Give the backbone structure.
Amino acid sequence: MDESRPGHPTRLPLIIDRPDLAHPVRRVVGVALTLLCWGIWLGMWFVLLTTLGYHVGFELPRFLVPQVVSLESFRALAHLVPYALATASAVLFAAYIYERLKRHWGKTDERWHPVGMDRLARDAALDPENLARWQRTQVLYVEHGPRGRVMNAYNEPPRQA
């Protein structure tokens, strides 16, 4: 299942299997962004933990204690969490609905339109002239194939051999 079909070999393995095949600039940027995000994440935890430690009563060096941040500011942020979660859920729901509906915008629904001669001939793989001639007749003689499918149709009765 995970191999390519015969006649369509892949030229190179996937980058997830061989990251050394990625462009060097892309690899360096990826590592730099990863380190930056980890640093920001750890920095936020550092501020929270030092504020909690100072509030509990630990004597921390002055350069480690954030002067502007207090425990009340974290409590005020905690009250905003439900609103942030509701907003994120609404954005995700709107994105889901947009992805589901965008393929239908600007298109006419062909299922509910009348079927014209051209579309009928195209869908049935028939010659449009024969189809128009067959529709003008009052009696149509149909020739069936071995499995019961319509093979051909005639305006006149077929000659008996």
Remarks:
- Residues 143 and 152 are 5 Å apart (CA to CA).
